[in-house]
Design goal:
The structure is a single chain. This protein is 39% helix and 15% strand. With 477 residues, it is α/β, with parallel strands linked by helices. It has a domain of 39 residues. An eight-stranded mixed sheet has the order 13-12-11-7-10-9-8-14. Strands 3-2-1-4-5-6 form a six-stranded parallel sheet, sandwiched between helices. Strand 5, helix 8 and strand 6 form a beta-alpha-beta unit. Helix 15 packs across helix 16. Bound molecules: nicotinamide-adenine-dinucleotide.
Length: 477
């Protein structure tokens, strides 16, 4: 492709974000998303963000955007970490910023600058007091905020997912490469205890060559969350379930198995097929709720997402991954987390966690010995403290601590923009496949070929492990 054409494409992709985030879309010029993807992939990588170590930050100044259920917990967790200052807080609703200030006070931390309103995040991203923008808003804002953060010279950490469309995913990649700012998706499940254990086992060949893996997000959110007026702000998550049909939340299941399979670092997700059931619960529930309470009238009569989605991915090296998504039928929680190799298998859900290196599951005492042998240094170092601080049993704190320790010591992050983009791309691709009677969808190579030589995730604490955790005497309520 002539180089001026490449430049045009690249400028178009980056420029679209700068113009108030109306997504390009290159499809507008080229009319076909497939052509857009082909062209994007044919561009050379500007810079490889895999393994990239940004300059050290002695203190990490954080701006948190979105102070609902998840963001307000993040304020407390991050307040435990030495060398971290929460300098800016933002929510659409000013009273939520006020509550987060109270948390800082309770944790003995200084007040942060306050931002609010629909567009308050823009000033936060552009402020001089922030090194990292940590986003915990509804999904549709994740990519716009991360893009503005990077373009304003900040690192971006975003709650799952990182982008809802393929265009957004590409923009994140392009922007991270051009600005040399990290864009990490906060996939906390990669830091859960059994997930880290199986990652180490896989890395050490205990399970042989990994052939197949399964992950899921199966969590009945209906009554307590989706249809609860006091849960998600402005009912954003219920609205998403009436707007999209596919796997809306793939990354909790996918992140940990992708790391075990060295996705983007030796192998790559090549293509997928996806199939959804009809909806058998959400529409009925909306009707029932609307009959009792007028508040729910706007949610009745909508075309809700099929309850159960199955997505199967094949990798370039001929391995498979099954992802499931169901947040609306009555089932016990599960992320499956199954890793099946030529020499053994590990599976987390349903409990108890189990491993087999022959035709039967290992006994408890054998499992215990194996756990001792394969526990990673990060878990030995921070695992017990993380359990005390909490956050999904500790995994949230391990993730936060590791991110801060990497930034403070100038280490590459465990999850880069290619992970963020490729794991998130499953949302849009599963929607497209479901819509087209489970047609095969190619998964973009966001690394543009670098997956062949990128190094696997570092499982040591080498060069880091220096970040301390504060002892906190909480004050007030
Ligand atoms: N990793 C995990 O385990 C985990 C768990 C729960 C939620 N999440 C993710 O965290 C994110 C937030 O979820 P939640 O449960 O806290 O939802 P929530 O509705 O409780 O919080 C979202 C917050 O964003 C605010 N907001 C909306 N528009 C805004 C804007 N323009 N500017 C600033 N703030 C704005 C809302 O007022 C609200 O306070 C979601 O992406 C969700 O998927 C992740």
């Amino acid at each position: 492709m002539p180089s001026n054409r490449r430049k045009f494409l690249r400028n178009l992709s980056i420029g679209a974000g700068a113009l108030g985030f109306s997504l390009p879309s290159f499809a507008k010029v080229k009319n076909s998303n497939e052509t857009f993807l082909e062209l994007q992939e044919s561009l050379p990588q500007t810079f490889n963000m895999c393994g990239y170590a940004a300059p050290k930050l002695d203190a990490v100044h954080i701006g948190i955007v979105g102070l609902g259920m998840r963001g307000s917990d993040a304020v407390e967790r991050l307040s435990y970490i030495e060398g971290v200052e929460i300098t800016a807080l933002c929510d659409k609703y000013a009273d939520r910023v006020g509550k987060a200030q109270q948390t800082l006070e309770k944790m003995g931390r200084p007040k942060a600058k306050e931002y609010s309103g629909d567009e308050g995040y823009k000033a936060l991203c552009q402020s001089k007091d922030v090194d990292l923008v940590y986003t915990c808003t509804p999904w549709h804002l994740h990519a716009p905020i991360s893009l503005l953060a990077m373009k304003s010279g900040k690192h971006a950490a975003t709650e799952v997912n990182a982008g809802l469309s393929i265009d957004e995913c590409w923009q994140l990649v392009e922007t991270s490469e051009q600005t040399k700012k990290h864009c990490m998706m906060l996939e906390n499940c990669c830091y859960d205890f059994f997930e880290l254990l199986t990652l180490n086992m896989a890395r050490n060949g205990l399970l042989g060559e990994i052939v197949h893996a399964e992950g899921a997000y199966i969590h009945d959110l209906t009554k307590d969350y989706l249809f609860n007026k006091n849960a998600y702000a402005d009912m954003w998550r219920l609205k998403e379930n009436a707007k999209r049909n596919g796997n809306l939340y793939p990354t909790h299941g996918l992140g940990p198995i992708a790391q075990c399979m060295n996705i983007n670092r030796g192998d790559k997700m090549d293509h997928l097929v996806s199939m959804s059931t009809n909806d058998f619960t959400l529409g009925n529930l909306a009707k029932e709720m609307a009959a009792k309470d007028d508040f729910f009238q706007p949610y009745a009569g909508k075309n809700y997402r099929g309850n159960m989605n199955n997505t199967i991915i094949r990798t370039n090296k001929g391995k498979t991954m099954l992802l499931q998504h169901d947040v609306s039928t009555l089932r016990p929680y599960s992320r499956i987390h199954l890793i099946s190799g030529t020499k053994g298998i590990a599976q987390k859900y349903p409990a108890p966690e189990r491993i087999a290196l022959e035709h039967k599951w290992m006994k408890e005492d054998e499992l215990k010995q194996l756990k001792e042998k394969y526990t990673l240094p990060i878990v030995k170092h921070i695992g017990e403290i993380a359990k005390e601080v909490g956050g999904h049993g500790g995994m949230d704190f391990i993730m936060d601590w590791r991110l801060m320790d990497c930034l403070r010591n100038g280490l590459p992050l465990d999850m880069d923009v290619y992970d963020a983009a490729s794991w998130s791309s499953i949302i849009a691709l599963s929607e497209q496949s479901v819509k087209a009677k489970s047609k095969t969808m190619d998964i973009p190579d966001f690394t543009r070929g670098a997956w062949k030589t990128n190094k696997p995730v570092n499982l040591t604490l080498e060069g880091g492990g220096t970040t301390q955790v504060r002892t906190v005497q909480k004050t007030g309520n």
